[in-house]
Records
---
Amino acid sequence: MTTVKQHLDDISKIQSKYFIDIGASCSTEHSQSEVLLELGFSGLMFECDPQKFPIQFQKMMGKNVIVSPEKVTVDNILHLLESNNVPDGFYLTIDIDGYDYFVLDKILSKYKPQLIVSEINEKIPAGVKFTVEYDNDYFWDGSHYYGYSLSMLSELLEKYGYKIEELDYNNVILTPGLQVEDIKDVYERGYLNRPERKSMFYYNADFEIVYSLPKEQQLDFIRNKFLPTENERQSRLGHQIDGKKISKRNFILY
């Protein structure tokens, strides 16, 4: 939901004029990366969905961008950036719908993006740290189980020297600096207390009760939501139930 045009002042400070878009998926609408290209940036986009990639590749032909079908993982991301001679200080967009946290951690271990836009799992309440554990075979099954929580991000902020510039519903914007504002206040202002939230994120209605629970009960609620059903436990990875592939559900929650 966050748009590039809302952050033109920050973008103007990016000297490299280069962007990385992981999980681009911009085949059907005017994307953030397209706006950056219009602003004179060049970039590298990753979209591993075999249905979306050819559409996106065709859409980006003639533009100053490389579109790759490579699946980005913790194991290959640094090699991918190095082999494409990516300059440091770039604009980073990451939306993998899965183990985003670990890929972001890996990138920050070597690079210093000047502006980061990352999707979070917005329904996880402030104070709860959650992330999908890294698994190269992970894929999003369309459920609530994906990504990481805003509070989980606090560890990376401290480790690498970033701050939350803004939370816009399910997108967090990070810039280099010291995190001063409390994560809970950021979450309430950027998602929980916004008047349009319930109508825009109607599919999160079954999570609504979690915000009124004490911490330990919140953890139990989320754990029960994310643990596989008995039907899923009896199926092997890659099998299907009701037409949907079943993935392992390993996560960190505290």
Note: The chain has ten helices and eleven strands.
---
Amino acid sequence: MLMAVKEDIESGFLFERELLISADVFDDFLEQAEHLLENKYKDAAAVLIGSVLESSLRKMCKKHGVEVKDNTGAVTTDTATIAPLNDELYKAEVYSKFVYKEIIAWADLRNNAAHGHYDKYKQTDVEGMDQWVRSFVTEHLT
């Protein structure tokens, strides 16, 4: 049994299963965000969608062997925020500069929502964020 687990780990099967489970969880969160948007709760939806984006970037780092380190050299990938995750994934050429800049914009929207700057974005902006994050997760994590 242990040999079978070892083979699964070495073949990447367990990571693939983790990605599938994560995709289901992300889908649930995005469905919750969509429900919030339908009921005009753009602020809560923006925070939730931003959390899915951040978590997706962490998963991408793991998938591509990208580490985020602090200024002391300690690995902080599991606790890093969107900006450093995005920086390292772009440096590793996981995605284009265009995608890199889009992530910066969506992170800004999420931060505005999380810090009470509700007048800096609109319902339609959050709806666009929802569609973009759905597409991004599908393209990069499935």
Note: The first helix runs from residue 2 to 11.
